[in-house]
Amino acid sequence: MTDIGQNLRTIRKMRQLTVRQLATAARISTSALEKYESGDRTPTPGVIALLAQHLHVGPDRLTGQPYLGGAEADDQVQAVIPDLRRILLTYENPDDLTVAPRPLPVLAAEMDHIAQMRQDGQYVQLGPLLPGLLAELTHTALRARPGRDREQAFWWLARGYRATNSLAHKMGYHDLSLTAVERVHWAADQSGDPLMQITAAYLRAGAMVRMGALGSARRVLEGLEQEVERLAPEGSLSEAQMAIQGAILLKLAVLEARDGHPDRAMQRLAEARTAAGWCRRDTTHYELSFGPTNVRIHEVAALIDCGDIDQALARLREWGAEQDRTEWELPAGIAAERVSHHHIDVAAARLAAGDRHGAFADLSVARGVSPAHTRYHPTTRHTTATLVRLDRHQDPSIAAYARWVGI
Asked: What does the pLDDT look like over 85-109, one tens digit per residue?
C-alpha cells in the first residue's frame, strides 16, 4: 500500500532534495514535512499542490490518483472515462448518432437530474448516464439555428461539461478535468448568458488553485468579482448574482489561506458573510453552493489550510453551542458532496490534533452522506491509512473501512 507520504518521500529523493530543502522551498516547517512523509499528518490540498509544484510533478503524482485497484475496480464509472475523452475531443465534430437526439426539454430535464446527482457526489450512478447525454446535447447545439434555441442548447451543454469536470476531478483524471473546464468555457461563450460565462471562468480559476497557480487564480477571481458588480444595475444584485459573487469570495478566501495570508482569507470570509446575510439562505444558483452554512464550512476549511487546527475545531464547538449541541451540525438541505467534504476535512484536522476516535467518526459520517465522493477523496485515503497504522488494537471497524476505501 502506498500513500501520499510514501509518494512524497520517493519523489523528493528522486529530485535529490533533502527534507530541509523542500520544506524551505514550500514555506513549511521541516517537522511538518517529516510528519507528512511518515504519515503522522495529512497534508491539506493546498500543501499537496505546493509540494507538487516544487517537486515538478502534478498533484496526482503525490496522491496516487486515479485509484484503479481495490474496491474502485468494481465501479462501472471507470468504464465511461474513454467515452468521455472521445466526446470532449470531438466536441466540434462529433461522431454520428444511431438515432436522432431527443427534444431539448427532455435532455434538459435529464441534465437537471445529473446536476443534482453531481452535487450529491453520486458519481458511480451518474457516470454511465453522462456520455450519451453529452452526445445528444452536442448534436442538438451544433444543429440548432442561431438564436434562443441554440443558446439554450449550449447552456445545457455547458452544464454537461461541468458534470464531466467534476466526475473527472473526483475520480483523479485531472487531465480530463482540465479539458472539461475548457469545454465549459466554449459552451458558455455560446450560451448568451454572462453568468454562465462567469461560472465557467470560476471553474477555471478553481483548477488553477488546485494546481497551485495562485497568482493567476487570484487575478481571475478578482476580475470576476468586478464583472458581477458591473452586470448589476446601480449595484442592485439579484440573488443569483449575489450567490455567484459570494462563491467567488469564498474561493478567494481558500486561495489566500493556501497562499499563507490568513488575514486576507479572514477578510474575504467577512465579505462573504455579509453577502450571505443578504441572501439569508443557502442556495445553489448555477450549481455554486452559497449561503450562511457554506460560509462556515469555508471558514473551517480556511483555518485548517492556514494550519490553525485548534481554532478550526473551536469554531465547531462555538457554533454547536448555538444549537445546544456539543459541536456544530450542518442543517438539512445542504448538497451531500459539500457535507461529506466538510467531514473529510474535519477528520484530517482531528487526526492532526490527536483525536483518532473523532477522526474516524467524521470519516464514517462522510461515507454515510456521500459514499463515492468519500471513497475517491485522497484525504480520506491518507487519513484512513494513518488510522490503520496507529491502530494497535486492530479495531475491526477501522479495518473494514480501510477495505472499503480500497487500501
From this structure: 999 999 999 999 999 999 999 999 9
